[in-house]
TrEMBL record:
Protein known as: HTH cro/C1-type domain-containing protein
Source organism, top-level taxon: Bacteria
Source taxonomy: Bacteria, Bacillati, Bacillota, Bacilli, Bacillales
GO molecular-function terms, A-Z: DNA binding
HTH cro/C1-type domain ranges (all copies): 12-62
Pfam hit, one: HTH_3
C-alpha cells in the first residue's frame, strides 16, 4: 500500500508553497516535510495543527480522512474537501 501523503503534497502545491516554505512557517525542517509527504514520518499533534492551519484545512481532513484498521477502511465524515482548494 502506498503510504505517501498525496493530499498533503497536493494542497501544498496548489497553494504554491515549497517544502522549505512550509517548513519555515511551521517550525520544521525541509527534510521533515519531505518525510511527512513520503509517509515515512508523522508530525506531532502540535505540528499537525500548525500545518493544517497554514493550509486552512482541518487536521482530520489532512491527516486522517481515510483510516485503515484491521483491513477495514474507515472514512471521515469531515466536510472539508480538497476541491475547496482548486
Amino acid at each position: 500500500m502506498d503510504k505517501r501523503n498525496l493530499r498533503f503534497m497536493d494542497v501544498r502545491q496548489k497553494l504554491g508553497l515549497t517544502q522549505v516554505e512550509v517548513a519555515k512557517n511551521v517550525g520544521l525542517s525541509q527534510s521533515m516535510i519531505a518525510h511527512i509527504e513520503a509517509g515515512n514520518k508523522e508530525p506531532s499533534k502540535l505540528y499537525k495543527l500548525r500545518i493544517a492551519s497554514l493550509f486552512s484545512v482541518s487536521v482530520e481532513w489532512l491527516f486522517y480522512e481515510q483510516l485503515y484498521e484491521g483491513g477495514v477502511s474507515y472514512e471521515s465524515k469531515n466536510s472539508e474537501r480538497l476541491s475547496n482548494h482548486s
